[in-house]
Amino acid sequence: MATPRQRRVSAVIVLATLALCALFLAQGTTRVLAAELLAPNAVAPKPPGKRFTASSPSFLRRRKPEAILRRNIFDSARGDLTAEPLPEIPLDEDGQPVADWDPNRPPPKCTGKLRLVGSVVSPVAPDWSFAAIAGSSDGKTMLYREGSEVDGSRVMAVHSSSVVMTGSTGVCQLLMFEEEETTAARAPVAKKPAASKPADARSAGLSAEEMTDGIEKISDTKYNIQRSLVDKVLANQGSLMKSARVIPHEENGRVVGVKLYGIRRNSLLGRLGVRNGDMLRTINGFDMTSPDTALEAYSRLRSADKLTLAIKRQNKETTIDYNIE
């Protein structure tokens, strides 16, 4: 005979079974009634599947143009275009931009007495780009690079034939080959006798006689130079900058010197014992790996009595000594 505990357990099992059966019957009845009574369009439509959309190739996606402007493969002499300053937009009396202003045109010409004598542009290392500018106050020609101050104006960019500057009047440019405009009528020019052949640019504007008289070779690594010859070279810095191509040389990601190219034996540097392809390391102990020290070494040439070049030629270190008399 079953105990009271067993009877309670049996009752719970039976009731649970009846509840589950009632639930299943209710669900089935509800579905049958819905299929018979409801219209077909009343049934919720099946959500559409995810459509496949073809993505464009990675090389057709929009990219930033900074890499193209930085490399500037169409004008290697001009170099990085992202570093160039944007021209200032001229405004009218109401503070609105002038209607006929074109942002793509070059900056206007600089007014004043500043004159661009020459320039050396390094597309690889912009810090090694220099411009020889004659100042308006004393008329002396000095070397300047980006960020330098010249008579109240700042050098913004150095190009092969122009220099972009900014000052109190805005952004302007100095042109190397600018022709002076004159309002007076040109007088007829009389025929002149045939001029002698100009000096080679690699000779820094010096004639062969001047170099022969001013340079005395003692040995392959020792020379005597007349002070007058040094003064002539420093006074004509534009021609000096054209006497050779100066390219910074890097090893393991850092500049270790500058290489000199375009040197001939009868040129100024060739007569001073420098050969084509030499790598200049120091001048009187000033390291040529930094533009600042290079400018400091150049500025002390006027008062120096001796000059020592440390160069690397065909993987061999050597020095050339000059005695300035």
CATH superfamily of the largest domain: PDZ domain
Output the radius of gyration.
41 Å
CATH topology of the largest domain: Pdz3 Domain
Please identify the structural class as seen in this structure: alpha+beta
Low-confidence stretches: 180-185
Textual characterization of the structure:
There is one protein chain. This protein is an alpha+beta fold and 325 residues long. 23% of the residues lie in helices and 26% in strands. Strands 8, 9, 10, 11, 12, 13, 14 and 15 form an 8-stranded mixed sheet that branches. A 4-stranded antiparallel sheet has the order 4-5-6-7, with no helix packed on it. The longest helix is centred in the N-terminal third of the chain and has 34 residues, at 4-37. Mean pLDDT is 75; it is low at 180-185.
